[in-house]
């Protein structure tokens, strides 16, 4: 564990968890979220140019994509880098409000989705005009005041981390990666510099060799593995209405749906429309005949869910009631079914284990602190919201509520504070809408 982690106080055994009432006033909206101050300490670092001290392929390159604990992921990113070297460039995804790219391998097969930080919905280099227009015409409504701006790539990777820790297995693996490509949106200056360096290398190799990096500067962003054969949930849900699923398959869908609810609720996703989760429905047409017994085996259809587009999560406060960013799945019929034993058994033991929660927070800290705009105070607020969500979710699971009842629970935030007087105990106070605090132990 990193010494500088803000999550571990020197008085680790005496952390006081102080539950505060959320600022949100609309507990009846499905789910609920704080403005990032313009003068936050991370911002000055954020604006500093990236200093590239090493050549692109040097092992000391700060933008080298190394994942020592995940060689499979490293291999996929290596294939993407190789393809870009062969000029098989990532392709912008036309739909959507930001710069997101389908990344290919050398054969042109899509293997990942890359979302550069500076092309995020509210990034300086977002190539889509809709956000530019919004910034121009309606600056007061620009951005989501409950989210840290330009942290979408971290939110994507954070969602994947939460997914893996809880063994939900619904988020295609996502990590923070550096890529450079001609097809990304660069400033004219970056392009001119890159062309100039290339020219210098060709004309005066001795001078050119002194440049640290010849091509365009790598962009930091989230890289999510591409999942094949999936369609928007919207599409499938409409089809299933017209052609109801067999009972077993419907049950499978319900169990996968519950995993989505758990993920979204914990990370407090503010962008979960039914176009931001995908379904794969494999309905085998063929049947197998066992010639010895003369039995015909009918294969069960298989349904799988993929939770994509997790870039607008991990808010620093619950959303205001006038912009509640609801979970759109709360209006589906699946949200009216009580949580299953399966999801309870999978996540409740983890969510009620303080060590698990601390580990999760520490992993998120290690991920988020790599961003030059990282701000501890904001991170604490993000964690306070997440803890509140986990508290509500645990209660809902224990009481066998439905996902709809879960999103109707009053939002809670859990703040941590040092309490030297309470050594050797981890305790917190909590107050809901009633403002009546009561004490409990984690
Ligand atoms: N991991 C993935 N595997 C397969 N397809 C994907 C994946 N990620 C995204 N897509 C496809 O690309 C489309 C756009 O992706 P996504 O919603 O993440 O991008 P976006 O730019 O954030 O869009 P928007 O702003 O509209 O939400 C999705 O609707 C989906 O069809
Ligand atoms: Mg989307």
Write up what this structure looks like.
It comes from Salmo trutta (Brown trout). GO terms for molecular function: 1-phosphatidylinositol 4-kinase activity; ATP binding. The structure is a single chain. The protein is α+β, with helices and mostly antiparallel strands and 442 residues long. It has a domain at 71-225. The protein contains twelve helices and 14 strands. Helix 4 (152-165) packs antiparallel against helix 10, helix 8 runs antiparallel to helix 11 (376-398) and helix 9 (341-351) crosses helix 11. It is globular, with a radius of gyration of 24 Å. The model is unreliable at 9-41, 48-56, 422-427 and 431-442 (pLDDT under 50). The structure holds adenosine-5'-triphosphate (ATP) and magnesium ion.
Quick structural gist:
It is an enzyme of class 2 (transferase). With 442 residues, the chain is an alpha+beta fold. It has helices at 42-46, 71-85, 129-137, 152-165, 188-203, 205-208, 233-242, 247-267, 341-351, 354-368, 376-398, 403-407; strands at 15-21, 91-92, 101-104, 110-116, 174-179, 219-225, 231-232, 277-282, 287-290, 295-298, 302-307, 412-418, 427-430, 438-441.
Order of helices and strands: EHHEEEHHEHHEEHHEEEEHHHHEEE
Query: Mean pLDDT score, rounded?
Result: 81
Q: What is bound: which ligands?
A: adenosine-5'-triphosphate, magnesium ion
Total beta strands:
14
Oligomer: single chain
Largest sheet: 5 strands, antiparallel
- State the helix count: 12
Helix content: 25-40%
């Amino acid at each position: 564990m990193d010494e500088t982690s803000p999550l571990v106080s020197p008085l680790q055994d005496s952390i006081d968890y102080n539950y505060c009432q959320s600022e949100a006033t609309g507990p009846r909206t499905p789910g609920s979220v704080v403005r990032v101050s313009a003068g936050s300490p991370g911002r000055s670092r954020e604006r500093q140019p990236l200093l590239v001290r090493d050549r692109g392929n040097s092992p000391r390159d700060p933008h080298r994509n190394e994942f020592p604990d995940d060689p499979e992921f490293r291999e996929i990113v290596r294939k993407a880098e190789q393809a870009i070297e062969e000029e098989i460039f990532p392709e912008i995804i036309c739909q959507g409000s930001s710069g997101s790219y389908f990344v290919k391998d050398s054969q042109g097969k899509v293997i990942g989705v890359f979302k550069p930080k500076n092309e995020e919905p509210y990034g300086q280099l977002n190539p889509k005009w809709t956000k530019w227009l919004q910034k121009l015409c309606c600056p007061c409504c620009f951005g989501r005041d409950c989210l840290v701006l330009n942290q979408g790539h971290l939110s994507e990777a954070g969602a994947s981390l939460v997914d893996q820790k809880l063994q939900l297995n619904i988020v295609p693996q996502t990590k923070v990666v550096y890529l450079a490509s001609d097809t990304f949106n660069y400033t004219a200056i970056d392009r001119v510099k890159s062309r100039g360096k290339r020219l210098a290398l060709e004309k005066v190799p001795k001078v050119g060799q002194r440049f640290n990096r010849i091509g365009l500067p790598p962009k930091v962003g989230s890289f999510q593995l591409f999942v094949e054969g999936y369609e928007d949930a919207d599409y499938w849900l409409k089809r299933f209405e017209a052609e109801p699923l067999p009972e077993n398959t419907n049950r499978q869908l319900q169990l996968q749906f519950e995993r989505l609810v758990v993920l979204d609720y914990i990370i407090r996703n503010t962008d979960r429309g039914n176009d931001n989760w995908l379904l794969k429905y494999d309905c085998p047409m063929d049947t197998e005949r066992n010639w010895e017994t003369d039995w015909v085996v009918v294969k069960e259809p298989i349904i799988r869910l993929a939770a994509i587009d997790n870039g607008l999560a991990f808010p620093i406060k619950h959303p205001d009631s006038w912009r509640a960013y609801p979970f759109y799945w709360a209006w589906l019929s699946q949200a009216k079914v009580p949580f299953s034993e399966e999801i309870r058994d999978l996540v409740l033991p983890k969510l009620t284990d303080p060590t698990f929660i601390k580990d999760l927070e520490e992993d998120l800290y290690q991920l988020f602190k790599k961003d030059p705009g990282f701000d501890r105070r904001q991170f604490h607020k993000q964690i306070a919201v997440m803890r509140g969500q986990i508290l509500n979710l645990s209660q809902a699971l224990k009481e066998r509520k439905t996902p709809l009842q879960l999103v109707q629970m009053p939002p809670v935030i859990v703040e941590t504070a040092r309490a030297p007087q309470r050594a050797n105990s981890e305790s917190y106070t909590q107050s809901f809408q009633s403002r009546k605090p009561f004490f409990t132990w984690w």
